[in-house]
Amino acid sequence: MASIALKTFTGLRQSSPGNNSITLSKSLPLTQTHRRLRINASKSSPRVNGRNLRVAVVGGGPAGGAAAETLAKGGIETFLIERKMDNCKPCGGAIPLCMVGEFDLPLDIIDRKVTKMKMISPSNVAVDIGQTLKPHEYIGMVRREVLDAYLRDRAAEAGASVLNGLFLKMDMPKAPNAPYVLHYTAYDSKTNGAGEKRTLEVDAVIGADGANSRVAKSINAGEYEYAIAFQERIRISDDKMKYYENLAEMYVGDDVSPDFYGWVFPKCDHVAVGTGTVTHKADIKKFQLATRLRADSKITGGKIIRVEAHPIPEHPRPRRLQDRVALVGDAAGYVTKCSGEGIYFAAKSGRMCAEAIVEGSEMGKRMVDESDLRKYLEKWDKTYWPTYKVLDILQKVFYRSNPAREAFVEMCADEYVQKMTFDSYLYKKVAPGNPIEDLKLAVNTVGSLVRANALRREMDKLSV
Ligand SMILES: Cc1cc2nc3c(=O)[nH]c(=O)nc-3n(C[C@H](O)[C@H](O)[C@H](O)COP(=O)(O)OP(=O)(O)OC[C@H]3O[C@@H](n4cnc5c(N)ncnc54)[C@H](O)[C@@H]3O)c2cc1C
What we know:
Elements: H1 2-7, E1 21-29, E2 36-42, E3 54-58, H2 62-73, E4 77-82, E5 94-95, H3 97-102, E6 112-114, E7 116-120, E8 126-129, E9 139-141, H4 144-158, E10 161-171, E11 180-186, E12 196-202, E13 204-207, H5 214-218, E14 226-235, H6 238-243, E15 247-253, E16 257-266, E17 271-277, H7 284-294, H8 296-299, E18 303-313, E19 321-322, E20 325-327, H9 329-332, H10 343-360, H11 370-398, H12 402-412, H13 415-427, H14 435-463
Parallel strand pairs: 3-4, 3-13, 4-10, 7-15, 13-20
Antiparallel strand pairs: 1-2, 5-9, 6-9, 7-8, 10-11, 11-12, 14-17, 14-18, 15-16, 16-17, 19-20
Helix pairs in contact: 2-4, 2-10, 10-11, 12-14
The structure holds flavin-adenine dinucleotide.
């Protein structure tokens, strides 16, 4: 499916102008995994004397943790400001296999390895997907309090100063290379939990402070449309947990969400049951109840141990960069439509932005400017914009009515669809298609949609 849409898709953004950097031939190792960066020194950027470049990362979720680790390993004096060290970010916690490898995640922070997924239609037709997975392939299920703490600890081990504090605002530089002054409330042992107002001077700032980003507000980054997502963690009996051992469920239908899906994702000793919507936010609790009812027989008798809700950005902010401040992760608006996936994209954008700073500053030796940070945006848009666009189209086509959702679930039974979908999800690369299978799939898709439209017309007649 993704491959078909991609082939007909045009309009990749062009690199923006204003890049005045030169490329040095020097290549430097960045991590133990032998990742290498080319060092691009901005022709005009002055050296920073007597110290290294100072960068503050605001927010210690996956975006912030990944950014801070990369910066610290790249010779930058790094400060990671997180308001709540035991934050349990409301989240389904599903991560693609490639994230485990790319971010060297230890297996003991992964609660479950999901190898089976049930896609359940409005009329409760369940299609098993995952049959095409190879023996080593799975979707990781994590608890965010575990993943986020792990990434922050790793940033600290790499040399970042991790500060427990609430970022409040920042004063913009008064001259071209002058510092940003960050104001935050510190909560460390010296403040006895009461909090103390402090300031921090840095040369650049990465805003990784999530959907309600204050860094975004500081640079007038503009708003985005958002979904509200609701989730309950439900502890179920061992017997019932056995069913969800390596299985996740996705429910579609007007009852569970008019424009998204409901989910049951397995965690260590509980399941996470949730749903989301952009268009009918006031009804979110009604949709949550419907999701629970659909899964009823499998979670009955369970105890709700946590109720959580949070916005999910629907698209990137109008502005993601200003001068020496860049936004990453949810602060920038990097969640995919259709799947609502944002953890991998948060970590990846954090790392990409940090790499651009390390490169532009020659490992902390020079001042950076907007053109250095812009390289991150250019690379990001070039790499992921098609993925976002395809998932946007899929959501518009298949989540718009119950007949369309029935068609969608019917299509998911196709092994080729499963392979393409899983390959794209697990590896974040658009899987190369097989022309004959692509053609078959196109015919089937049209057939399913025609049936869906015919069904919708019949239903409309009935409701007149
Ligand atoms: C209910 C729900 C389910 C989801 N399920 C999935 C899923 O299964 N898979 C998936 O990939 N994505 C999922 N997402 C999306 C995913 O949670 C986000 O895309 C991801 O968390 C973005 O990471 P981030 O680091 O950019 O931001 P966040 O994870 O939001 O982290 C921001 C961090 O900044 C801190 N912070 C905020 N403001 C300040 C401040 N002023 N000062 C200091 N610190 C601050 C916060 O405490 C937090 O730790 C889901 C989202 C929701 C709401």
